[in-house]
Each structure stands twice: as structure tokens, then as C-alpha cells.
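Q: Give me the 3D complex with nicotinamide-adenine-dinucleotide.
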Amino acid sequence: MANQQTQSVADKHTKLAKELQDVKLYIDGKFVDAEDNGTFENISPFTNETMNNIASGQAADIDKAVKAAHKAFKGEWGRMKQSERLDYVYKIGDLIEEHVEEIALLEALDTGLPLSQTKKQVSRSANNFRFYADTVKSQMYGETYQVDDEFINYTVRTPVGVAGLITPWNAPFMLETWKIAPALATGNTVVLKPAEWSPLTANRMAEIIDQAGLPDGVFNIVHGFGETAGDALVKHKDVKLISFTGETTTGSTIMKNGADTLKRFSMELGGKSPIIVFPDADLDRALDAATWGVFSFNGERCTANSRLYLHEDIAEDFVAKLKQRVENIRVGDPLDESTQVGPLIKTEHYENVKSYIEIAKEEGCEVVSGHIPEELSRGNYVAPTMLLNAENDMRVVQEEIFGPVIAVMTFKDEEEVIEKANDVEYGLAGYVWTNDIKRGHRVAHAVESGMLWVNAQNVRDLRTPFGGSKNSGIGREGGYYAFEFYTEQKIIHVAIGDHHIPQFGI
Ligand code: NAD
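A: Here is the predicted complex, encoded as C-alpha cells.
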């Protein structure tokens, strides 16, 4: 019976994969093969079979795309009135909204993320375009500085030029829109290098932008590997900024490689975020948040609360309840709406996450895992896992695992937990649960992270700065903070009186 079920679910994936066309690059308004006709295979996380072939861009393709983007920036797009430009941005948002179901299905098929979760991400993606169009309209303004009756000095913002966007596979469509929307809304042109493990919805984005009728060259996609296509984008002299989301080590390599062509970088990097639960918290809600925060998106989530610090007075009870949740989490077919955890994106990543579970055992953790139904043996499934008796100096507490794995620790008092929470190289997010208002603020201030939630799960407010401190990132995106990155500020000094000008040579 289990075998029959396996076959029928796998058949569904195979059937959908057969309907997929091969993916081309999108350069200067056309879908094209790579110059050298190279391709790579796109593998299903569920069946581990090849789904389709993807054009594999190299330096020559990047150069072609950058030239097209540069031409568009100097041409029609650069000269376009803001309102007309923003109409295109709204239109992209509308087209995404019209296709949420279809894009969410492609994303689930390609990444193994559960369909119910990709639907939410795709809806948010549509909203990103509307939000940035609105924000440019209402908040992209300059400042004036009056100097007595001698000068009026004022600032203007102009787009930077060709924006190179490099994105990861963990929430691919949403994270791409997070960069494309502000880049276009502020008037830049774009070359996107999406993650090689999740090309399908990036291609769908190209189709949508094509349908929205943006002038040729404004938006380009070069699929391919980081070390080839990504590297060429980073090193290209006409690319004026790189917005990167991915691993910390990749971020550092990119900054080194881009240094010779002096460009600006935005770095959204890895995380190992703490969730701290005090005894006076609403423990049921804290349990919901801790469970969702690490096991949603298959645990492949940069802001995952992968380190759980429980006050010793509540630890035993909390752990028992979390165990129950872990055992009950529905691991299943990502295309099934009721699935809560799907397969990890790729065998390499699966092996890496599994190796951390082995390391945890070697380091002395008690490992408690949930269940993977028998019929799912072909996919890259890792059961939701708790690492009990973890200690701060263990690798599984210090390093980003990026899978459905939570390390559990206890603490006695506030001072101790703050020290432990800060004793990692990362500083992306943090979560504090307490009903003591003073302590909530105190701990929120003390935890070293770019973003902190008190008595809340990771609910994003698009107006606020998003980004990490320490090894989790450089710079902030989101809201008008994105203008700092995607625009150049110019100060214009205008004399309105006869200020003193020294007279030389008289
Ligand atoms: P990754 O660093 O392996 O790859 C990210 C992108 O960089 C891919 O497109 C890849 O092809 C490209 N790349 C790789 N080497 C490159 C090079 N030398 N030059 C140019 N481009 C190169 O990351 P990943 O495995 O795709 O994503 C997971 C990581 O992303 C995790 O560490 C996660 O925490 C992080 N992440 C961070 C955020 C955030 O906002 N801080 C959000 C999502 C994911």
C-alpha cells in the first residue's frame, strides 16, 4: 500500500515536471540560449529526477545582459517619468497576484517548500512591488538646508545604474522580488543571477516582466552557477551595485572579488537566531512561535529561531510539549496543502543537514526526531529534530544548519542568557518571550541582532529596516532604507546672495 502511494505521489511530480519547458536566459527582452549553448539539469527535491534543463550563463552572457541593462538605463528607462515607471512596477505586482496559485505550485515543485507556505510567499511578493511603488512616490524626497540668505542647499536622489542582484534558493521568488522591486522602482536597471538550485520561478518572473511590457534591457536574468555567472556579474565594471543574499562565506568572497571594480554591496547573510523564553511568558504562544519559527519553510530560513533558550523553571514542561509538536508535524508531499515540512532542496544540502545531526550526537546531545512517512523515502527528507542538552560551545549551536533542527538549552537568569545569546558570530534576528515589559525591552536591547521580536513570531513590517549585524550582514533593505542603497544622493548648493569669493590674481 505504501509503495502504491509513493508511486502515485511521485507520478504527480514527474507528470508536472514533464510539462516544464527548458529554461532560457532573459536578455534584452528576449529568451535566449547561453552563448556557448551550455545547460545544467534542474533536479526535483521530491523524486531526485531531472525535471528540465536550464541555460547555464557564463561571463559572455553576463556581459551581454549588462550591456543591455546599461543601454536601457541610458535610454528609455532612464528618461522615463517616475509615474510611468511606477505604473510598470504596479503592473508587475498585479500580474504576480493573478498567478499566485501557479507560481506557488512551481516554487513548491522546484524547492520542496510546502505549497501552503509558498502561496503566502508569492502573495507577499506581489505586495513588495506595490509597496515599493507606493514608497518611492511618498518617501523618495530630498532635504533642504538653508544657510541664512546666502545659500539654499538641497539633495536629490538618482538611480545608481545597473544593479546586480544575486539571490539564494531558500525562498527564491520572494527574495528576488525583495530586490527587484526597489531596484526598479528607484529607476535602476537589473541583471538578476538567481540561485542555480531554484530557477523555475525566476524564469516565471522574466515572463511576467516581459508581459508587463517593460522596455527591453530594463530587466535581465542570467541563470548559472555562482562561480561563473555570479562571479562575472560581481566583477563587471559597469555593474554599480551588488545586492546579495546568501551564505556569509559567499558574501565575503563576493566583496573581495568586487573590490577592484569599486561598487556598493548590500549583504544579507546567514543566521543562528536565539529565542529566549522566560517563565512569565505566555508559554502556549511561545511554543507555537518556537515551533513555527524553526520548522516552517523546511527550516531553510535565515531568521529561523534555531537556538532555543528556556528558563530552567519551565524547561521540562516546555520540552515535553515541543517533543509532542515535533512528533506531530506533518512531513509530506510539498504539493499537498496539509504538508507542514517538505523535502530539502538538494541532496548535497540534505547530506549537510544530516551530518550536523550526527555531529550533535558526537557532541553529546540527545537527538529527538519526528517521523517521515515510509512512502517518502525518495525525497531529501529530514525529520523535524530537537537537539537536547546542547551547550553554547558546540558546533551545532554555533553554526548555521539551515534545516528543520532546533538546539535546546536552559538558563538561570537574564544576564546568563544574554551572554549565551550573543556568544555566536551571527546577529540576524532574535526573539524574546516575557510578560515583564521592562525585561522585554532590556533583553531586546541587549541581544546583538539586526532585528528583534518581543512576544511575536517573525512578522515582517515592510516599512522597517531589514538586515543583520555581526556576520549576518552589512546594510539594511526595506522601507526607505532601500533608497540608501539603490540611489545615489547628490547635494546641490545654490547661492541666493553674493557670498564672499576670494579674488586671486587681481
Ligand atoms: P549561497 O551563498 O550558496 O548562494 C547564494 C547565491 O550566490 C546563489 O545565487 C549562488 O549561485 C551565488 N554565488 C555563489 N558563489 C558565488 C560567487 N563566488 N560569486 C557570485 N555569486 C555566487 O547561499 P544559498 O545556499 O543559496 O542560501 C542559503 C544562505 O542564505 C543561508 O546562509 C541563509 O541564512 C542565507 N539567507 C540570508 C537571508 C537574509 O536576509 N539575511 C535570507 C535568505 C537566506
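A quick observation: The first helix runs from residue 2 to 18.
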